Amino acid sequence: MPIFDFSMPDKRLISTALLIVVGAISPALGSMDSPRSSDLSASSKVMAPNFVEGREDDANVARIAFRLATAGRARCATLEPNSGLVLQHLSQFELADRAGVLATLPLDRGPGVIAVVAGGPAAKADVRPGDVLLGIDGQALPPEAGLSIPFEATRARARADAVLDRLTSAQSLTVLRNGQPKVLQITPVPACASRVHLARSNQRNAFADGQHVFLTTGAIKLLHDDDELAFLLAHEMAHNILGHAAQMRSGSVARRKEVRRLESDADRLAGDLMIDAGFDPVKGAVALERLGGMDLGLVLFAKHDSPATRIAAMRALAAQRRAP
User: Fold this and answer.
1) Which domains does the chain have, with CATH numbers?
2) For site-directed labelling of 67, which of 1, 97, 194, 237 has its Cα 20 to 30 A away?
3) Beta strand pairing status for 139-140 and 172-177?
4) What tens digit of pLDDT does each residue of 260-298 get?
């Protein structure tokens, strides 16, 4: 399974928590390598009885993605307001699991808040994990359609993106807390436009489609610290910032040498984003030695320089940034 790659997500892969790092909507990029579906498990099948328990991975990814997207915004041509929270919609669960979810939280009335980035706009607005988002700027969210039919990734992601679109201009949120509606004032902050999705899956993968970043809990388990997770996220965000998905779709990048150039460009921007946000790109890139040791197939090594070469490039970049 390739990692740090442009791949088409399996339809079940996107049964996932949605991290609100705001960006535009785009169809997924055509596959260069197909994920294995046999390793996937829907997020609802590992849900704790309490909706917000066991969500450390979601919170960590949201925190680091928010930090990268806001600190590095000077490097991004496209900015969108970011609220710094994690939502999950009922349509993102398998059909058989929805009744159990509704027994703990009324997600048929709106998406549930899984996590809130400390110090971010949602936290300052007093949004809390366990809240249910009912409306934005005094307008109720439209009800989710198709809740009586099986999970379908395109429909679920379209619903999530539609809510994100409205959040970009939000000034107030109406949430349900302890059975009572509560209106909260919010001021999102400018950030690089990239929507980050975390899928609960044994698959070890991370990829970008031009506006979204997808990664799996299987990949996160191989990482040792925040710097390594930041490198994973920053690399995929860099692909989006640099417009690499559009280049791949246009057919202007076809040869392996050209693809490796894109990957190197993404590494360099990822290193800058990490330094801007206070992460160490050299420590982060060390994860490549561990990730490269997985049974990923030779195609991975055709698309990337060796881990040693990529780590050396991060050392050179860090030294350059430290120079007076």
Assistant:
1) 16-190 (2.30.42.10), 222-322 (no CATH)
2) 1
3) unpaired
4) 888 899 999 999 999 999 999 999 999 988 876 443 333
pLDDT digits (tens, 9 = 90+) for 63-106: 999 999 999 999 999 999 999 999 999 998 889 989 988 988 89
Long-range (24+ apart) CB contacts under 8 A made by 302-311 are: 302/256, 302/259, 302/260, 303/2, 303/5, 303/32, 303/256, 303/259, 303/260, 303/263, 304/4, 304/260, 304/263, 305/260, 305/263, 305/264, 310/264, 310/267, 310/285, 311/282, 311/285, 311/286
Mean pLDDT score, 231-253: 87
Q: Sign of torsion, CA 123 126 127 130?
A: positive
**What are the tokens at 223?**
């990482």
Give the position of tokens 């309490």: 50
> And the tokens for 256?
């392996």
Q: Is the pLDDT of residue 167 over 60?
A: yes
* pLDDT at residue 8 is higher than 80: no
Report the sign of the C-alpha dihedral through residues 70, 229, 309, 300, in that order.
negative
Contact 173/84 with Cβ under 8 angstroms?
no
Contact 65, 206 (CB under 8 A): no
**pTM metric for this prediction:** 0.83
Taking alpha carbons only, the member of 214, 217, 209, 196 closest to residue 43 is 217
Burial per residue of 75-84, b for 16 or more beta-carbon CB atoms within 10 angstroms, e otherwise: ebeebbbbbb
Task: Determine how β-strand 85-88 pairs with β-strand 112-116.
Answer: antiparallel
Contacts for 236 with CB less than 8 Å, ≥ 6 apart: 4, 194, 206, 207, 208, 213, 214, 215, 266
Q: Predicted confidence band at 306 (pLDDT cuts at 50, 70, 90)?
A: confident
Report the distance separating Cα 188 and Cα 166, nearest Å.
Answer: 12
Residue bearing the bigger pLDDT, 262 or 318: 318
Cα–Cα distance between 103 and 114 in angstroms, integer? Answer: 16
Give 24: exposed, middle or buried? Use CB within 10 Å, 0-12, 13-18, 19+: middle
CA atoms within 13 A on the CB side of 24: 9
Average pLDDT, whole number, for the chain? Answer: 80
